[in-house]
Amino acid sequence: MTATTPTLLDVEGTSIAVRHEAGATPGIAWLGGYKSDMLGTKAQTLSDWAAGEGRAFLRHDYSGHGESGGAFADGTISKWLGESLAVFRRFTKGKQILVGSSMGAWIALRMVQELRKAGDSTIVGLVLLAPAPDFTNELVEPALTAAQKRDLKKKGFFEEPSDYSAEPYIYTRALIEDGRANRVMTGPIDTHCPVHILQGLADADVPASHALKLVSLLPADDVTLSLIPDGDHRLSRPQDLDMLLRAVGDMVRRAG
Question: For the chain, which terminal residue's Cβ has fewer other Cβ atoms within 10 angstroms, N or C?
Answer without folding.
Answer: N
